[in-house]
Write a structure and sequence with these properties.
Elements (H helix, E strand, L loop, with lengths): L1 E8 L1 H5 L3 H10 L3 E8 L3 H7 L9 H8 L4 E9 L1 H9 L12 H5 L8 E3 L3 H9 L18
Antiparallel strand pairs: 1-3, 1-4, 2-3
This protein binds adenosine-5'-diphosphate (ADP) and magnesium ion.
Adenosine-5'-diphosphate binds next to loops.
Amino acid sequence: MKTRSFTIIKPNAVAKGSTGKILDMIIGAGFTLRAVRMVCFSRNDAYRFYGEHIGKPFFDELVDFMTSGPSIVAIVEREDAVATLRELVGATNPANAKEGTIRKLFADSLTRNAIHASDSDENARREWSQWFAPEDIMEAEYNFPMI
Ligand code: ADP
Ligand code: MG
């Protein structure tokens, strides 16, 4: 069954011009875009999004990073979307990320690790709801031949 996940191309990857390459990897792995937009996280947005990490030693650095410039947020769809995207994204610490994963290719450090991917169907829905209203999400089938 096709399911959906939520992803963020984080500010370091956007700033370096890697947005297109990362989206191409995601689409090349069989995902369909269902919604996409460019956003600037406020500190309030970062606290809400990363609420589970408030109080951890890296939290202030994470908030400073996520508010440092624009990000691309997107909803993506495929069979087994959450697990497949986490696999493509790679380990949180790029030093441990497998060859060919997005973090191995585009991360600058453990904090500046280029991309977010949701870790469960439930969290995916909660996370994309912070950025997309229901009418922002493409529900129609659009992968039809254009000619
Ligand atoms: P993931 O993004 O792989 O789900 P976490 O939810 O554990 O990882 O952490 C959220 C984000 O916080 C990470 O993607 C990374 O940007 C940052 N982060 C996590 N752990 C650390 C750490 N030990 N030191 C610095 N930054 C971290
Ligand atoms: Mg996480």
